[in-house]
TrEMBL record:
Domain ABC transporter as annotated: residue spans: 6-247
SUPFAM superfamilies xref list: P-loop containing nucleoside triphosphate hydrolases (SSF52540)
Entries under PROSITE patterns matching the protein: ABC_TRANSPORTER_2
InterPro entries in the cross-refs: AAA+_ATPase, ABC_AA/LPS_Transport, ABC_transporter-like_ATP-bd, BCA_ABC_TP_C, P-loop_NTPase
GO cellular component annotations of the record: plasma membrane
Record keyword Transport present: yes
Name of protein: ABC transporter ATP-binding protein
Keywords, comma-separated and alphabetical: ATP-binding, Nucleotide-binding, Transport
Gene3D superfamilies on file: P-loop containing nucleotide triphosphate hydrolases
Any one GO MF annotation of this record: ATP binding
Membrane-spanning residues: none
């Protein structure tokens, strides 16, 4: 069998006596959308932070594309194609949608445009940025200042900025939080189309989105993976049902 794109082995992290990540092991295959679900405070965000390089684990390894990246910082991981989707707060509110994405293209491309004249460089950056805006459904909105976009559009723009880094593996932390029903449906459709192009690890509370999108689901409870499998396997797992006992919306979605 071929190697997974991401292999996490025995990852642990504690804050004092609080073990937020306990011996987590997990494989993510290329081309898959792998969702990580779990009740509030289970340690999902802390786990993603260790995958992105934002946070150092106490022990364990993160192997990406066959390389041990455990000790690499976030910027080095982004350069290798392992990126976390940008938070809305990192969008430059006073800049246009196009400028936000063009800056991300420039940051990634570095000096590779150095042979162009300045005007041609700007054109090339903008052309590439326009493509990402079109990919996320923001064609026609490029001239709008980011701060004036709707909440859903900001999330789309955040995805365009993430795509500009040309990720091979994208980490998404609750991309649907705060979106309305229609905006959520649009974003789910967007993730569905992006699945063929980039491998994704998704943390999401919206179970309908998780079960619609995920190829595999891992369930984190008190920092430990208690179940991992296809959506159907996870749905039927007694430990998963027990973990969500009392959370009616999730119980309904589990069926
Ligand atoms: N820097 C920190 N120092 C101390 N405790 C922390 C720190 N960061 C997170 N925690 C604790 O670690 C636990 C896991 O938090 P985390 O945010 O990763 O959970 P989560 O599953 O993402 O939660 P939610 O679904 O509510 O976003 C929580 O109990 C949280 O209070």
């Amino acid at each position: 069998m071929s190697q997974p794109l991401l292999r996490v082995e025995g990852l642990s992290k504690a804050y004092g006596a609080l073990k937020v990540t306990q011996n987590v092991s997990l494989d993510v295959d290329e081309g898959q959308l792998h969702a990580i679900i779990g009740p509030n405070g289970a340690g999902k965000t802390t786990l993603i932070a260790q995958l992105s390089g934002q946070l150092r684990p106490d022990s364990g390894t993160v192997v990406y594309a066959g390389e041990d990246v455990t000790r690499l910082d976030m910027a080095s991981r982004v350069q290798k194609g392992l990126a976390r989707s940008f938070q809305i707060t990192t969008l430059l509110a006073g800049f246009t949608a196009l400028e936000n994405v063009a800056l991300a293209v420039q940051a990634r491309a570095g000096s590779s445009f150095r042979f162009f004249r300045p005007a041609a460089t700007e054109q090339a950056l903008n052309d590439e940025a326009m493509q990402y805006l079109a990919d996320v459904g923001l064609a026609g909105r490029e001239g709008r200042v980011a701060g004036s976009l709707s909440h859903g559009e900001k999330r789309q723009l955040e995805m365009a900025v993430a795509l500009a880094t040309q990720p091979r593996l994208l980490l998404l932390d609750e991309p649907l939080a705060g979106t309305g029903h229609e905006e959520a449906a649009q974003l789910i459709a967007l993730f569905d189309t992006l699945k063929s192009r980039v491998t994704m690890v998704l943390i999401e509370h919206d179970m309908n989105a998780v079960f619609a999108l995920a190829d595999r689901v891992s369930v984190l409870v008190y920092g430990q993976i208690v179940a991992s499998g296809t959506p159907a396997e996870v749905r039927a797992d007694a430990k998963v049902r027990a973990a969500y006992l009392g959370e009616e919306e999730v119980s309904d979605a589990l069926g």
